[in-house]
Amino acid sequence: MADLRFARTEKMLQLAFLKLLEETPYHEISIAKLAQESLIDRTTFYAHYDNLAELAEELIRQELAPFHQALSTRQDLKQKQNFDNYSFFSQELLSHLLTDRQQITLLRELPLGSNSFDRQLRGIFTQTYAKILQVPASDFTVFLLDNLALSNLDFILKNGRAPAKKELQAALQKMEQFLN
Predict the structure, then answer these.
(1) Residue closest to 25 by CA, chosen among 104, 111, 102
(2) Structural domain of residue 1, as residue ranges?
(3) The overall pTM is greater than 0.85
């Protein structure tokens, strides 16, 4: 019973934090304000988290878990023939991204340095692409693919859909013309 109450309180804290982020800049959120919003006292907050950054990092970890899963699955599928390297994003993550669109957008804005959403996601992409391409993580192709994946994320969150492969191909052709 205590574990259920603990989990319920933790979920309440997370939801209250996200609600506050919708209306208050991160640097203006205090533990007292969060405790008041979640109807708990400050000592209860500290039973769950050491500080607000730890709470934010936990939410980011939860939102990044589907990326880990999808990219791990992608590496497994890469071994099979007829695997479309581009479509994994829409197939594996689109539903998650659209369901948690607002939450992900809020978490991406948090100024957490190396623990920020985008910084961690870029690391996941870098490891995956370097492994698949069998090149160093510092390879320029990996850097370009990281940025393409983050651009896909931006597009999905803004437009509510994944860009089609034909859209990507047309955009790459325009970029090639621009570079010539």
Answers:
(1) 111
(2) 1-49
(3) yes
